[in-house]
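All the exercises in this workshop are built on plain-text protein records. An example says more than a description, so a record of this kind follows:
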Amino acid sequence: MKKYDVITYGRSSIDLYSNNIGSPFEEIKEFGAFVGGSPLNIAVGTKRLGLNSALLTAVGNDMVGKFLLNFLKKEGVETAFIPVKNNARTSAVILGIEPPDNFPLVYYRDNCADSKLDIDDVMKADIAHSRLLEVSATALNVEPSRSAAFFAAEQAVEHNVPVLVDLDFRADQWHDPRAYGVTARAFLNFCKMAIGTEEEILATMLKDPSQIKIKNQQISAPEITGDINEAIKAVLRTGVETLIVKRGEKGSSVFLKDGTVTDVPGFPVEVVNVLGAGDAFASGVIYGFLQGWDWYKICRFGNACGAILVTKHGCANFNPTLQEAMSFVGSNGGF
């Protein structure tokens, strides 16, 4: 019997979400304070679904770090593996909400505490006693969190703990999108499962600079082009046995190494905020995987968790419980 169902690894932050829904970013008058960061969201999401979840991140010796730890402890997420980094700061994200399709965000991650995670921190996390390790690929962008993430994956593989990577491509966190691709491809060899959008999958396989298109004059947010089918095949030539493609309102698709493809429909809902929906989806996927469900049911449940979240204001604070997610599925066509 493993002590933890899942350990999630990577970024954590205070998220300041616009309370003026629909207002252009430059006209926002007030923000609501929530918590965020993909691994934090997934730790909370899986905990609310009933799993025993632990988070491996880091916070600064500051009030924002205390804000995060207070929330996590109230949620029941294991915080024993969250070191305090005295010479760094807990990160922050500021987000605008202009539904249905404009959700601008600004990261504040200079001298970020969770980027200071190191191999010693990983050794204290006891990954061998978890049923699954989930890693956010943003943690691969700088040292020492990059080598610590690889070490965590090595530890997981040595102890037969499956590794799930969320491709989590954030262009402005990398000096070059191709550097993300090189690093992510190396990490995939430790992973049994990967989750990402089509753009994240294209970025993972990015080699040709002509595939990088600058959109809206924002160099920090380029559009990645390419042949998505070839990129999917390339991912499945690494250690990844299962690749799950997030398709937003269209649902999701599962690609297996043996060539099997399963398309899973989503749930039509009125969108308030799409940010964090992918993490709610991943939480549902992890829950279903650890229950031993088939891939259709796993992703249908993940789609439901994501659909519930897009009707809410924020991320982790609004993740559904197991009862809420099951009721939603049951009232919207079932599995």
